[in-house]
């Protein structure tokens, strides 16, 4: 059901701002940014890990701004 919902949903445009990347280790990066859509602004963060020359998303979190 979740996959069907994603495949049939309409993409929403977003503008990113305050985008920062902090290296936590040589192969680990923390990205933080604000995402602005027509509906809301959210604060987002994600942790990326480099494995075998490819960057992979390990964790993502988003919180709607008040």
What topology emerges from the helices and strands here?
Blueprint: H1 2-8, E1 15-25, E2 28-36, E3 41-51, E4 54-64
Antiparallel strand pairs: 1-2, 2-3, 3-4
Structure commentary:
There is one protein chain. With 66 residues, this protein is mainly β. 11% of the residues lie in helices and 64% in strands. It contains one helix and four strands. The protein has one helix at 2-8, and strands at residues 15-25, 28-36, 41-51, 54-64. Strands 1-2-3-4 form a four-stranded antiparallel sheet, with no helix packed on it. The longest helix is centred in the N-terminal third of the chain and has 7 residues, at 2-8. The N and C termini lie far apart (30 Å). The model has no long low-confidence stretch (mean pLDDT 92).
Output the radius of gyration.
14 Å
Spatial order of the strands forming the largest sheet: 1-2-3-4
The percent range for helix content is 10-25%
Mean pLDDT: 92
Task: List the uncertain runs.
Answer: none
Largest sheet entry: 4 strands, antiparallel
Distance between the termini: 30 Å
User: Helix- and strand-based class?
Assistant: mainly beta
Residue share in β-strands: over 45%
Strands, count: 4
Order of helices and strands: HEEEE
Task: Name the shape in a single word.
Answer: flat
The helix count comes to 1
Structural features:
66 residues; mainly beta; four-stranded antiparallel beta sheet; 1 helix; 4 strands; 64% strand; flat
């Amino acid at each position: 059901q979740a996959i069907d919902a994603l495949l049939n949903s309409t993409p929403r445009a977003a503008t990113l701002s305050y985008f920062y990347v902090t290296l936590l280790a040589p192969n680990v990066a923390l990205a933080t940014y604000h995402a602005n859509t027509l509906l809301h602004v959210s604060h987002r963060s994600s942790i990326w890990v480099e494995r075998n020359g490819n960057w992979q998303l390990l964790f993502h979190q988003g919180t709607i701004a008040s």
